[in-house]
Model the fold of this input.
Amino acid sequence: MFSRRDMLVVSAAGAAMTASTAHAASFGNPDQPPQGAVNAKGPGNLRDPGPQNEAIGSQFPSAQFPPATDVGGMPMDWASFNNAPRRIQNGGWARQVTQKDFAISDTITGVNMRLTAGGIRELHWHQAAEWAIMTYGSCRVTVLDALGRPYVADVNEGDLWYFPAGQPHSLQGLGPDGCEFVICFDDGDASEFNTLLVTDWFAHTPPEVLAKNFGVPAETFAEIPLQNLWIFQGKLPGDLAADRVAVSKAGRVPPHPFIFRLAASAPTKESRGGDVRVADSNNFTVSTTVAAALITVRPGGVREMHWHPNADEWQYYIKGKARMTVFNTGPNAMTMDFNAGDIGYVKRNLGHYVENVGDTDLEFIGVFRAPRYEEISLSDWLTHTPPALVAQHLNVDEATIAKWPDNAPGIMPKS
Ligand code: MN
Ligand code: MN
Done:
C-alpha cells in the first residue's frame, strides 16, 4: 500500500502511479468527468499537504487512493469499535455503535463487551432481540422464554446466542479470564446503555409492594441496591449441570437451544479460497430475526461478487485485513478498508465483494436482520443465464463464460 511518503515520491516522479494503473485505466472508469488518481495529471495533484493524522490515514489506503473504477460518492460504510468510548465498571466494560454513530446502520446496533472471570452483566431485558458472537473466552448465559421455560448454557469462542425481544437474560464471564463478545440488536436505535434492569425495578418499587409480590416480609428488601449494577464483579458460578438443575424445578424445557456453535459447525461452502458458515432460523431455530454468515478468506482470496436480496449486511471484522467495494446505481462504487474490530455495512441488494489484502486469514461475520440467510452470486447468475445472452452484454465469448464458476463458490482463491 502507498504511504504518504511513497505518494510524495510518486508525485515527484510523475509517471509511476500512472504506469501502475495504466492497464486498469484502459478498461476502468469511463465516467465523466474523469475521476480517480489515474486521471490526475497536474503536479502535486495527489499530494495531501494539509493537516493529517498519519496513524489513522495509513489505515485507509483505498479511501486515499480509490481504485480507478470507484466513482461518485456513497454514505460512509465504515465504523469501528476501536474508537468507541468504553463504559467501564468493575467486572467488565462495553462500547457500542448505534445508528446515531453510524447513520446507514438502521437495522442493527453493535455492542462490544468484555466480562471478567465472574463479571456479571446483570439480569435484564429489552425491546430488541439480541444476537451475539463470542470472540474470546467463555461465558454463561441464562434466559427465560415467553412460556416460562428456563435455559442455561456456556458459550465459547465462535459460539452464538440469541435472545428474542423481551425475554429476560444474563451473562457472566467464566474462568480463567472471562470473555469478550459482540452483540447485535435487531434495531439500529437500540442501546446497551439503556436496558430494563432488575435492580432498577426493585429500587423503584415500594417495599410493601415487593413484600406482597414475593410473599415475604418487606424487611427482606432492606439491603437491595439503590442504583443499578449493569456490569459488576460477581463470584464464579458453579458447574453448569448444577445451575441447570437449579432452574428446572418446574420441568419446563425450551424446545430449542438459545446458543449455536457456529465456528465448529460444518461449512456451507468451502474452497481453496476459504469457507462460509451460516446460522439462521433453519439450523439455529430460535434466531427468527437474525441470520449470520461467518466468512474466512485466505490471503489473496476474494469473497465473491454478490448481494443479499432480503436484508442489509452488518459486518464485524474479527481477523486480518480487508478491502470491500460496494456498488450502487448511478453508477456509484466505493472501496473501503477494514481491520480487526471494525464494522462494515452494506444496504440490501447493493453489489459487493471483500478482498483479503493481508498476508493472514481474513475472518469476518455478516449479520442480517432476516429469518433466513440469502445471497445472489454474480457468477452463479451469469452462468445460469443463456450464454449467448450474457456474451452479447459483455463482449466475452461463450467459451470463456463456460469457464466461470457455476457453483456459487462463496470464496474465490488467489488466482
Ligand atoms: Mn441483553
Ligand atoms: Mn455479503
User: Anything to note?
Assistant: The pocket of manganese (II) ion (ligand 2) is lined by residues 306, 308, 313, 352, 366 (CB under 6 Å). Confidence is low (pLDDT under 50) at residues 1-25. Residues 4-64 form one domain. The CA atoms of residues 11 and 45 lie 7 Å apart.
